[in-house]
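Worked example 2:
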Amino acid sequence: MSFDNREGTRVPNAPLQFIEDGKLVTRSSDELFRGRKVIVFGLPGAFTPTCSTAHVPRYEQLHDTFADLGVDDIVCVSVNDAFVMDAWRKDENAEHVTFAADGNGDFTDGLGLLVEKRDLGFGARSWRYSMLVDDGKIVKQFIEPEKPGDPYEVSDADTMLGYLAPDREAPHDILLLTKPGCSHCARAKGALREKNLAFEEVTATTAMLRAVSDDPRTPRVFVDGKLIGGADELIAWLS
């Protein structure tokens, strides 16, 4: 394999397909990118592990941040049919990423990133990449290194954010383990909402709390994978 960087060139003009209002719609890539600033990321396949647990979710999470930086759309491209891509979008609860099907691989092949994955039973698929496209022109491209398997090192959303805004801090990943009727949990959630910080909440069992902390009280607050503590510690961290 040998992948050429296509920065400074125009995206290939190839058909891409979408499901809109239950109907199959075909648009040319020229139509999709004309007059718009778009982040595109390509990946090997819908419902596959890295694509589902990391690649798509982080771009979805950083949508508002990218929009603040002038990005009009985030497009996920895979060599799958449009019906599979639409089912995957729904499964991911992805409201802000546009899922584009490159069923025949024409768009991916035009980028020089169509690869054979017959060893996995996939046939021809996309190598993993991301790129910033402005009015149809590739401004920046991040192509995963040519290694065996499915490397995921440079096409992620945080790398793209670092290129667009090196000084911009990415949103934190915040998780709250809570229990119903917990007043301290309500206080923690209120403090986060006052700061307009997004968070995930999981109703925890006692066994779950003991498994992640030596303090079984709620809430247990985690930020970027680290235990902050309870509501008081969270408020101190926010200040």
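The chain has a mean pLDDT of 94. The domain at 15-164 is CATH 3.40.30.10 (Glutaredoxin).
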